[in-house]
Automatic annotation (TrEMBL):
Gene3D superfamilies: Ribonuclease H-like superfamily/Ribonuclease H. This is Predicted 3'-5' exonuclease PolB-like domain-containing protein. Pfam families: DNA_pol_B_exo2. Residues 47-255 form the Predicted 3'-5' exonuclease PolB-like domain. GO terms for molecular function: nucleic acid binding. InterPro entries: 3'-5'_exonuclease_PolB-like, RNaseH-like_sf, RNaseH_sf.
């Protein structure tokens, strides 16, 4: 496995101000504006899921893995504006050049980051350069689908065939991991309204952890991790999560779901 590795996920809400500007709806209240944008989107697309540029980022979570071990982190709107969160996240790529790992990051997370960084006038050449600055990035960058600098697990596990795309929650649970547990993406706007920042970070970090565990299994499948190395990394993840108070629910749920498959059933010692 090439290091460092950065597994990431974002959570978003509709940018009402940008939506009002785009559709000339400045005279509506916030609630009416949200309903109007949802109706317009249903007419355009058949669902409430907004266009990529109208997704305002409210949380970015990541798991960093290098020679020093694992570190889980989150940036959210409790302490940072969207621009500040983006600046912190993008600065990682200026300092290091990690292997980026996501679930559906090519179609959603990275395009959202691209548009929102442009919205705030930010520069991120280390993430978006495709060889114009660093000629080596012509052959391996974060955008091109068949390169390995960004591993979008949903895409690669579907063998780059959209008909085979699967949900993160389904694959996580299939493989003996916790999946979404009690959270769901539709709760994010309410968490933001209630300023439930800890719950929001826990949810986003949960997606990151599921993605990390699937990535380890993917590396095992491809022969880029030996069985003993895979087990050591799983054990290291369990030991690390035991030190993270905000992820005790994830760890407890994982202990239960691990019993559902023969391969994962011995990840945790059997309780007498």
């Amino acid at each position: 496995m090439r290091l460092p590795v950065l597994v990431f996920d974002i959570e978003t809400i509709t940018d009402l101000n940008a939506g009002a500007h785009l559709y000339q709806l400045h005279d509506l209240s916030q609630d009416d504006l949200q309903q109007a944008l949802n109706k317009l989107r249903r007419q355009e697309h058949g669902s409430d899921f907004q266009r990529i540029p109208l997704h305002e980022i409210v949380c970015i979570s990541g798991l960093w893995f290098d020679e020093k071990g694992l570190r889980l982190f989150s940036f959210n709107r409790e302490h940072d504006s969207e621009a500040s969160m983006l600046q912190k996240f993008l600065s990682i790529f200026e300092k290091r050049h990690p292997v980026l790992v996501s679930w559906n990051g090519s179609q959603f997370d990275l395009p959202v980051i691209l548009f929102r960084a442009m919205y705030h006038g930010l520069s991120a050449p280390a993430l978006f350069d495709q060889g114009e600055i660093d000629s080596q990035k012509r052959f391996n960058n974060y955008q091109n689908r068949y390169h390995h600098q960004h591993v979008d697990l949903m895409d690669v596990m579907a063998m780059f065939n959209g008909r085979n795309f699967q949900k993160l929650d389904d694959i996580a649970q299939l493989l003996g991991f916790p999946g979404k547990r009690q959270g769901a993406g539709y709760l994010v706007p309410e968490q933001v309204r209630q300023q439930a920042w800890t719950a929001l970070a826990q949810y986003c970090e949960g997606d990151v952890l599921n993605t990390w565990l699937i990535y380890l299994r993917w590396m095992l499948l491809k022969g880029q991790l030996l069985a003993e190395d895979h087990r050591q990394l799983v054990d290291a993840t369990i030991q690390y999560l035991a030190t993270q108070p905000q992820q005790q629910e994830f760890l407890a749920q994982w202990q239960k779901t691990a019993q559902r498959t023969p391969f994962t059933s011995d990840f945790f010692p059997v309780q007498d």
